[in-house]
Amino acid sequence: RPEKLQNRVMLFCFEIAAFSIMFLLPVISFTSVKPAVKIFSQRSTRSLCSFKSFISEEVEDVRSKKTTVFDKITQCIERIEKSDPKIRAYLSVHGEEAVQEAKILDRKINSADNQATLNLPLLGLPVAVKDNICTKGKETTAASKILGGYVPSYDATAVRMLREAGAIVIGKTNMDEFGMGSTTENSGYFPTKNPANEAHSPGGSSGGSAAAVASGTVVASLGTDTGGSIRQPASWCGIVGLKPTYGRVSRSGFFSF
Predict the structure, then answer these.
(1) What is the spatial distance between Cα 168 and Cα 135, in angstroms, rounded to a whole number?
(2) pLDDT 10s per residue in the chain (257 long)?
């Protein structure tokens, strides 16, 4: 029957789309905090082709010693302290650990045998991670008080690969509890606000990851997408969310529904 066929097609589409992890990349440079309205209005001024060059520019600043990883991370923490009390994109911020990681990278950069470090593709890049993705030694709750106190003993594959590439995880971002929602108002802790207009929702369920990037606190973040949970909040926050082909990025280490 036509209606049964339609239901099967919809179910198939849902299944092949489920649970991909991806990067939420900013449309414009976040080397300094810019007004949220300006961020929103400039969302179409840079093309998808510019994302790689944007990340490369951030990394090149460290490689060329225009800045240090320590300075980049401390500035990131300062931006979070300034803006996040209003936006509430983060459930936790790992400032102390991030600073220590930054110091280690700086020592490696300044050592005589530094070529391997300088070749890291995401050298010193601060990133945020959605709270349904496991981070070793750091509470991971999927924004649910049911999982309060759960501390994974391992990194999700995507997080491990970020670290191996030289990125530094700055904190865990808010979301709809267990991914069940599309506004980040269903978090078990608190709602997140849209940096473009604090009276509005940032979308969801990866609303914290989108808001973290849109507010300029980080240059990239990880989210998850079953039926739009990356793409919709990216759109609402005036940035771009990239959902890769299913299976392109490992799902190991993050929570299913």
Answers:
(1) 12
(2) 545 444 433 333 333 333 333 444 333 322 223 333 323 333 333 444 455 567 788 999 999 999 999 999 999 999 999 999 999 999 999 999 999 999 999 999 999 999 999 999 999 999 999 999 999 999 999 999 999 999 999 999 999 999 999 999 999 999 999 999 999 999 999 999 999 999 999 999 999 999 999 999 998 999 999 899 999 999 999 998 999 898 999 999 999 86
Largest CA distance in the chain: 71
Q: Which residue is listed with tokens 């269903």?
A: 186
Asked if 135 and 116 touch (Cβ cutoff 8 Å), the reply is no
Q: Is 205 a catalytic residue?
A: yes
Catalytic residue among 205, 206, 209, 221: 205
- The catalytic position among 72, 130, 138, 193 is 130
Task: Considering the candidates 20, 209, 215, 229, report the single residue annotated as catalytic.
Answer: 229
